[in-house]
Structure formats: C-alpha cells, structure tokens
Amino acid sequence: MGSPQAEAARKLPSGEAPSQPREDWEAAARAWLGEDTGRPVHIVGVGNPIRQDDAVGLEIVSSLRRRLGARPSPNFIIHPPSPMPERLLSRVASSGGRMMVFDAVQANRAPGAVVSARLSDTKYGYFATHNIPLRLIPGVSAGLDRSLLVGVQPGWLDVGEELSAAVKEAKGRVVAAVDAMIGGTGNGPT
Is residue 172 assigned to a domain? Predict the structure, then answer.
C-alpha cells in the first residue's frame, strides 16, 4: 500500500473537476439547517463498507444513531446505514424532504479534511468516490437544492473494513459537531 494520498488518487475517478467545496463545513451546515424548519431533515450515510475510508458516511450515521437514536426530534430522521441508499435518496427527494448526506469525497485535500456543498452546486461527477454521482440517481435531482453533502477526504480505498487514522479522527469530529447542531447531548458513544 502506498501513501494515503497516492492510494486515493489512484483509486478515484480521474478527470473530474470538483466544484468549490466549503472548507468551513460546520458553518455551512448550520446555515443550511437554519433555512427551513418546516421540513424534516433526513440524515443519510453513503459508502462501501469494504473499501476502507469509503465507509466513513456509513460510520458517521451509525455513530449518530447510537448517540441520538433514529428520531432525535420531530425535525430529524437518522436513517440506518445502507451501502445501497438509492431508493431512500430518491424517496426523500421526491417527498420534498431535506437531506444531509455524509460520504467520502475526493476534494483534493489531505486525508480527513471535511468539506461541504449543496448537491445543486456540484458539477457532474462531483468528487464522489463511487461510480454513480449522487446527483444522477433517479429521483434525487428533484431535491438537489434541498440537499447538503458533507464529505470527508479519504486516505485509503483498498479492500478492507477499517478507517485510516485521519478519517477515523474526522468521523469523530463530524459526529460531535452534528450532535451539537441538532441538539444532542454529546455524551453518547461514537
């Protein structure tokens, strides 16, 4: 296995120009959450559980569910992790719900860097670590303007089940920040 950066560059789609993700993902997420309190926020994780850091989105929602439960308030629904979230994403988008999606993303940053962007602001292929960009999933386009992607730059995407140290640390920071944003106690397990 080479350096984490070399591994990520070797494994990720080439030729895709990412949009300009926000480095201050917490401020962007807080602003996005404050925009519309009339619609529930569906918290969804995306990833592949056997491609090391690609599982970070799944791990984030697992930790949030352990800390806060599936329904921490009437305004938030934390969906169970699924390596195939296409139906859920389509259903939420077509119902008018809002989505906060957690995923591993190629943002040309150091492993563990956290960025955010609205799905409506992303370009084709937007720094996804998987073959199908989220915005191209049938039905998701209806909710692009109501969806926020929070992404963690992966270090390793080889076959395996453990997160790299940098991504594991980022996962803990993201879980604690989201817990605080949606009114959790911050005392549960990560």
Answer: yes
In total, how many domains does the chain have?
Answer: 1
Distance CA 155, CA 153 (A): 7
Give, for all 190 residues of the chain, the pLDDT tens digit. 333 443 333 333 333 333 455 669 999 999 999 887 688 899 999 888 999 999 999 999 999 999 999 999 988 999 998 767 777 777 777 777 788 989 898 888 999 999 998 876 765 444 454 444 554 444 455 445 678 889 999 999 899 999 999 999 999 999 999 999 997 544 445 4
96: containing domain: 4-181
Q: How far apart are CA 91 and CA 102, in angstroms?
A: 17
Instruction: Examine residue 188 and state whether it is found in any structural domain, yes or no.
Output: no
